[in-house]
């Protein structure tokens, strides 16, 4: 499954961007409603491409998502990409149901990341061959941000006081991001540490 090749429809983008709790903040009138029923078929289509997904389970319903918008610092063209977590319910034909959360990342109309959690199980597209560890999803975002800012591996290594091999492994997904390194990378990228922690999938204990 190649996520980067998937283009989102206008209806799906509108549903992913429907955040009434955020949009309504500070406004007298609620936002116009959006058709969220386009999301379950979209999620089921994406999940159906996972070779290990049981097609007997379907996303039944969803709720408005919770967004995280991140400024990439790009000087021209789209300067933001969006990650949104969409809660809902997944059920099987025999009546079982479980809580479901889909984490969707997109830039413009291009899907850049998809991860789902069904109950306590986290699901995502496989990249590595069977029997090999999956590359950390932070790798793709990090290399993209470095490219947008014109930061070569050598400069990132110098500014974070790490070896070039460490940055190479981080950029290929063979090295998992850890809190101190994420803090240093955020500084070099000119982004907030909180935003980079979210992208890296790190729990922020300070906000608990």
Can you tell me about this structure?
With 208 residues, the protein is an alpha+beta fold. The chain is globular, with a radius of gyration of 18 Å. α7 (179-189) packs across α8 (193-200). Strands 1, 2, 3, 4, 5 and 6 form a 6-stranded antiparallel sheet that branches. It has 8 helices and 6 strands; from the N terminus they run αααββββββααααα. It has helices spanning 10-16, 20-23, 39-48, 138-149, 153-160, 164-172, 179-189, 193-200, and strands at 57-62, 66-71, 80-92, 97-107, 110-118, 121-123. It starts with 9 loop residues before the first helix and ends in an 8-residue tail after the last helix. Helix content is 33%, strand content 23%.
